[in-house]
Description:
alpha+beta
Amino acid sequence: MNLKKQISIVFILLFLTAIDLEAQKFISDKTFISFYSHATIEDIKADNQKSSALFDAGTGDIAFMIPIKEFEFVKSLMKEHFNEKYMDTERYPKSTFQGS
């Protein structure tokens, strides 16, 4: 095999490897997150459809980013209390999680 052909094969293999590495990352910008809490006075439920996630199949790493103010409640007063009293979203506007 001549040198030119060997270099071409190495280049093609490197190119295919680069494509394969890129294809192993999965990104979602419409992740659904929900929580529910049973309470004596009133049950609390909220949904968030504006979070995002990243999964790297090559390494097994996963990450989430959740904008806290985007949780939607049945009652607007619940949302207000959640954001102001419990989560302090002015100071902490988002929540993140990283793991593998």
